[in-house]
Amino acid sequence: MLSSILRKITSLPLTIESWALSAIGIIFIRIFLEHYSSNEAGRFVLIDASTIIHYSTFFIAVLLVSTLIVMFFSKQPLKESATIALFGFMIIWLPPLLDLIISWGTGYTMHYLFLLPKDLLTAFLTMFWSTANTGITYGIRIEIVLVVIGSFALVYFYTKSILKSLSASILLYACIFALVSLPSMLGLFQRQTIPHFVSTSILNSKIISNSSYPAQSSYERVLDVGFNSLMTQVNLAIILVVGILICAIGYREKLKVLLRNSRPERILHYSILVVVGTLFGGGPSFFLSWVNVLSTVVTITAFVFAWLVAVCINDIYDKEIDEISNTNRPLPQGSFSNGEFYSLSVVFTILSFIAAYSSSMYGLFFVLAFSFAYYIYSVEPLRLKRHYITGALIIGFASTSAVLAGFFLSNNQKEFLAFNPLLTLFLVILFGFGSMVRDIKDYEGDKLNGISTLPVKIGLKKAKIVIATVISLGMLWVAYYFESILLTVAAIICLLFIWRVFFADVYKERNFFIAYLLFLVVFIATFILR
User: Fold this and answer.
1) Contact, 344 vs 405, CB < 8 A?
2) Buried b or exposed e, range 432-441, using 16+ CB within 10 angstroms
3) Is the pTM of this model over 0.70?
4) CB neighbours (10 Å) of residue 446?
5) pLDDT tens track of the chain, all 530 residues?
């Protein structure tokens, strides 16, 4: 019977979109059920955006962990493992239903475990039966027992190995235990009670002011929003780590191709700009809170995924150009199809927006602005990259968005005018002209496809002179503005190298980015030491 069920399940069609949408559907039904079984009178929970996103990232983390363990121990391909895990995922509907039945309709409050190490170990060894009936309720405990038995049976069916089956079921239980005990895990090595540690960490950071309007809500509600944002960030970190492990096992070659195509130098560019903006807005003291550090990392993650979306979309619409100028990219080589890039774009967009939302309201706005800017940059009918001025301004705007996201993440003032408008305009122009370096290597393909870049318009040599001059003026102005001798020396050295790179016999864009990123690193060091 199990054989026929698994054979039927694993033969069903599955795409990234159908898997993700099905998982979200299962999660929303669980949230609906939990609203009745875990609802507390007079407490606004479960139906606001921060809670829904928090719960969704938690359950997606559970689903991905389950998929990884099934795939690793059963040795089934990723598609089959993901399908099995998705069908089994519907068991999350069971706990709220069981709680309602056991309690005769009143239910039990579900929440994370907030236990010190000694009590945490006891809870692990007793499968939660040492804890109160709230938090990890009777329904959840029964669900976990069924999951452990089911994972043992599944792995044994495929491997006929008791050792592998036991290992899989114990590891899955340990992972689920860690996920439902995340606050306790975060405070594992400190002496405060876990609730006090978590609340103090939130209140000593800027995550509340970045996620809500404190003056408009009660203290308890504001703390709830901060907690939701924090746990969303932690769950998202788990999702990314487990997701990478799944891809490394199931799609190793495609993952390598995707990483090579991600333009790592530009990822570093946007990541460093977020850090620069954060230092400019809040100074080094902002990073004294581990919650603030995590928020910064998550903001960077949001821009990284937004950039990966831009890469996928741009490669789809630049396929003809890349067949001439960038033949090593995935689409010309046939490593990926257009459909696969579209699917990846959807997944990366969702991850980007969730990460941005959990970091700050401004972070979400600037990531949205960044994403749509790159969309109109690459896609018809606007395709603003066709003209070098509009294309440069769009790239300049996208780069400035990363700086502003970091600035408003750490700055106490949340008004747009807190960041000097003239400085914003300067950055847009500077980053815009600096972005024209990408047009140097694409010169031949752009010329054949009628893309009006600066090198196509005035010639390659003259364009190099103009671009290098603007970059030089920008770096020197930054050094002058911050009145730093160290930054001035770094700017001169980097500029000498950049001019040499531009007019070398063989132009290598990566060498330019090495010099440029080193200048940004020196800028950060200078700012910290001030």
Assistant:
1) no
2) bbbbbbbbbb
3) yes
4) 25
5) 677 888 888 888 888 888 999 999 999 999 999 888 887 665 555 577 888 999 999 999 999 999 999 999 999 999 999 999 999 999 999 999 999 999 998 889 888 988 888 888 888 998 888 887 778 999 999 999 999 999 999 999 999 999 999 999 999 999 999 999 999 888 877 777 888 888 898 989 999 888 876 555 566 677 888 899 999 999 999 999 999 999 999 888 888 888 888 888 889 999 999 999 999 898 889 999 999 999 999 999 999 999 999 999 988 888 877 777 677 888 888 888 888 888 889 999 999 999 999 999 899 999 999 999 999 998 888 888 877 788 889 999 999 999 999 999 999 888 888 888 988 998 898 888 888 887 787 777 777 777 777 888 888 888 888 888 988 988 898 888 888 888 899 999 999 998 998 888 788 888 888 888 888 888 888 877 76
Asked if residues 432 and 396 have their Cβ atoms less than 8 Å apart, the reply is yes
Tell which residue, 455, 453, 496, has the closest CA to residue 472. Answer: 496
453 in Cβ contact with 436 (< 8 Å): yes
Cα separation, 460 vs 441, in Å, equals: 10
Three-state DSSP state, 136: coil
Secondary structure class of 454 (helix, strand, coil): helix
> How far apart are the C-alpha atoms of 115 and 181, rounded to whole Å?
8
Residue 13: asked if its preceding bond is cis (omega within 30°), the reply is no
